[in-house]
Design brief:
By secondary structure, the protein is an alpha/beta fold. It has helices at about 15-30, 45-55, 75-90, 100-115, 140-150, 165-170, 215-230, 245-255, 270-275, 290-295, 310-315, 325-340, 340-345, 350-355, 360-375, and strands spanning about 5-10, 35-40, 65, 95-100, 120-125, 155-160, 180, 200-205, 235-240, 260-265, 275-280, 300-305, 320. About 45% of the residues lie in helices and about 15% in strands. α5 links the parallel β5 and β6 (about 155-160). It is globular, with a radius of gyration of 21 Å.
Amino acid sequence: MADTLRIVHCFRSPVGGIFRHVRDLTEAQVAAGHSVGIVCDSTTGGEFEEHLFEQMKDMLALGIHRTPMQRHVGPGDLASAWRTYRIIKELRPDVLHGHGAKGGAYARLFGSLLRVSRSRVARLYSPHGGSLHYDENTTTGKLFFALERFMARFTDYLLFVSDYERQTYRHKVGEPPIPNTLVYNGLRAGEFEPVSTEPDAADLLYIGMMRDLKGPDIFIDALALAGPRFGRALTAVMVGDGDDLPRYHRQVKRLGLERHVRFLPPMPAREAFALAALVIVPSRAEAMPYIVLETLAGGKPMIATAVGGIPEIFGTGSPALIRPDPVELAEKLSQALADPAAYGDLMPDRADLKARFGANVMAADIEKAYFAALYK
């Protein structure tokens, strides 16, 4: 096997943290001399994501291939799977890296099919939370975790983005019977430069997917609760898109906050950071969210929920961490905005963050996993 690889990343939805992870990884892999391609869903993402694909297309030797992929298992899956398999087969990958539940299933199944007819393909899987968010006591959870146990036999290497994710896998699926390692998400060097806040900035920023798992409803409820405590209505910017967005518009209207909350479409995180003094991540579940890393690297103070791998970034005793609860968030908002300078001093050291969460570190560790899977 040559030192340069043909790498294909397979995932469903080109939005949020998975897409960010794949973009950073492909950039580093192309710089290292590898030929890289992407296979993902064609029915999700908007203008912002199309712009990102446009920026990437010329550097990916194996191209960007988009085809409809269902989020949930259903009759349409057979046609979708066949289309995806034919694309991947044409690309002749040395490494097939699946991200998230659907991408992981496709990468491992199709990589196994390719082995029947050609030389070895390394099959890697990064859960990124994915099906691990399900409750192991529900019928759906039991089904998904049984499938994960079954799929392990078609997996050469597991890559976890947080220790929380690795421990969750062990608890819900079982001890991995295959090689696995922890590789934190990483940021580019330029992202550790501080972001200045605009003079007329809002008090608070939510940026992310507009779905309940990420907690926009918690953010809006806390905004309504914190205003009276702080002595004035708090202002907020909410950046993002998603199926639940109309419901959050209705929630803002119901609480009488229309004049104080501005909704904006997806945009680069560092542009959004300039729009508010304090960033809020109110998620109910996470693996290792990029938005937390980006916020802290940009020197912005934030409040985040102590879910998933977030405490691994802050440290478990950080006063910036709360439960995903609007009352608790409202209390923390009042404290943070009362003395912004003192609250900002509670954030993790940026030099330490850069040493732990650099994109170069992430890409090098993942490349080691690729070669370990190929040569085992």
